[in-house]
Amino acid sequence: MFQEKNRKGSGGVPEGNILMTPMPKPIRWQSSHYLSFVRELPCCVCRRGPAEAHHVRINGNSGTGSKPSDFWTIPLCRAHHAELHLTGAKTFQDKHQIDFYKELFLTIKLWLEA
What we know:
Order of helices and strands: HEEHHH
Largest sheet: 2 strands, antiparallel
Number of helices: 4
Protein backbone atom coordinates (compact mmCIF):
# COMPACT_ATOMS: atom_id res chain seq x y z
CA MET A 1 0.00 0.00 0.00
CA PHE A 2 2.45 2.68 1.17
CA GLN A 3 6.05 2.11 0.20
CA GLU A 4 8.97 3.81 1.79
CA LYS A 5 11.91 4.54 -0.51
CA ASN A 6 15.25 5.58 0.93
CA ARG A 7 17.97 6.97 -1.23
CA LYS A 8 21.50 5.83 -0.43
CA GLY A 9 23.39 8.44 1.50
CA SER A 10 20.27 10.39 2.45
CA GLY A 11 20.73 9.60 6.11
CA GLY A 12 17.63 7.41 6.16
CA VAL A 13 15.28 10.26 5.26
CA PRO A 14 12.42 8.92 3.13
CA GLU A 15 12.29 10.42 -0.35
CA GLY A 16 9.42 10.26 -2.80
CA ASN A 17 7.08 8.36 -0.55
CA ILE A 18 3.64 9.06 0.79
CA LEU A 19 3.72 9.71 4.50
CA MET A 20 0.64 9.16 6.55
CA THR A 21 0.62 11.34 9.65
CA PRO A 22 -1.65 9.97 12.35
CA MET A 23 -3.96 12.28 14.24
CA PRO A 24 -2.10 13.34 17.39
CA LYS A 25 -3.65 12.41 20.71
CA PRO A 26 -5.17 15.47 22.37
CA ILE A 27 -3.47 16.67 25.53
CA ARG A 28 -5.62 15.62 28.46
CA TRP A 29 -6.06 18.08 31.33
CA GLN A 30 -5.77 16.22 34.61
CA SER A 31 -6.34 17.57 38.11
CA SER A 32 -6.61 15.46 41.25
CA HIS A 33 -7.81 18.60 43.08
CA TYR A 34 -10.68 19.10 40.65
CA LEU A 35 -11.69 15.42 40.80
CA SER A 36 -11.66 15.58 44.62
CA PHE A 37 -13.89 18.65 44.43
CA VAL A 38 -16.34 16.84 42.10
CA ARG A 39 -16.43 13.82 44.45
CA GLU A 40 -17.42 16.12 47.33
CA LEU A 41 -20.52 17.31 45.45
CA PRO A 42 -23.84 15.48 45.74
CA CYS A 43 -25.00 13.19 42.93
CA CYS A 44 -26.57 15.28 40.16
CA VAL A 45 -29.51 12.85 40.00
CA CYS A 46 -30.47 11.99 43.59
CA ARG A 47 -28.47 14.70 45.45
CA ARG A 48 -26.92 12.08 47.79
CA GLY A 49 -23.29 11.30 48.38
CA PRO A 50 -20.64 10.20 48.27
CA ALA A 51 -20.22 10.85 44.57
CA GLU A 52 -17.92 9.46 41.94
CA ALA A 53 -16.54 11.63 39.14
CA HIS A 54 -18.04 10.43 35.85
CA HIS A 55 -16.16 11.49 32.71
CA VAL A 56 -18.72 12.60 30.13
CA ARG A 57 -17.79 11.38 26.66
CA ILE A 58 -19.02 13.24 23.60
CA ASN A 59 -17.85 13.44 20.01
CA GLY A 60 -14.37 14.84 19.88
CA ASN A 61 -13.30 14.71 23.53
CA SER A 62 -12.32 11.04 23.71
CA GLY A 63 -11.70 7.98 21.67
CA THR A 64 -10.72 4.37 21.93
CA GLY A 65 -8.27 3.98 24.78
CA SER A 66 -8.51 7.58 25.92
CA LYS A 67 -10.49 9.43 28.53
CA PRO A 68 -11.80 13.02 28.35
CA SER A 69 -10.10 15.77 30.35
CA ASP A 70 -11.06 16.02 34.00
CA PHE A 71 -13.14 19.15 33.35
CA TRP A 72 -15.61 16.82 31.58
CA THR A 73 -16.78 15.26 34.87
CA ILE A 74 -20.05 15.29 36.74
CA PRO A 75 -20.81 13.90 40.21
CA LEU A 76 -22.80 10.65 40.31
CA CYS A 77 -23.40 8.34 43.26
CA ARG A 78 -22.16 4.77 42.82
CA ALA A 79 -25.63 3.44 41.93
CA HIS A 80 -26.31 6.06 39.26
CA HIS A 81 -22.77 5.80 37.89
CA ALA A 82 -23.23 2.04 37.44
CA GLU A 83 -26.68 2.56 35.89
CA LEU A 84 -25.28 5.07 33.41
CA HIS A 85 -22.64 2.61 32.23
CA LEU A 86 -25.26 -0.14 31.89
CA THR A 87 -27.91 1.85 30.04
CA GLY A 88 -25.92 4.40 28.04
CA ALA A 89 -25.85 8.19 28.19
CA LYS A 90 -28.97 8.99 26.13
CA THR A 91 -31.22 6.51 27.95
CA PHE A 92 -29.87 7.67 31.32
CA GLN A 93 -30.45 11.36 30.57
CA ASP A 94 -33.96 10.71 29.25
CA LYS A 95 -34.93 8.57 32.24
CA HIS A 96 -33.65 11.02 34.87
CA GLN A 97 -34.44 14.17 32.88
CA ILE A 98 -30.96 15.62 33.25
CA ASP A 99 -28.71 17.28 30.71
CA PHE A 100 -25.01 16.43 30.95
CA TYR A 101 -24.04 19.79 29.42
CA LYS A 102 -26.00 21.66 32.07
CA GLU A 103 -24.50 19.50 34.83
CA LEU A 104 -20.98 20.06 33.45
CA PHE A 105 -21.58 23.81 33.39
CA LEU A 106 -22.92 23.84 36.96
CA THR A 107 -20.01 21.73 38.23
CA ILE A 108 -17.40 24.01 36.64
CA LYS A 109 -19.29 27.09 37.88
CA LEU A 110 -19.18 25.76 41.45
CA TRP A 111 -15.44 25.08 41.07
CA LEU A 112 -14.77 28.62 39.87
CA GLU A 113 -16.83 30.11 42.70
CA ALA A 114 -15.15 28.03 45.42
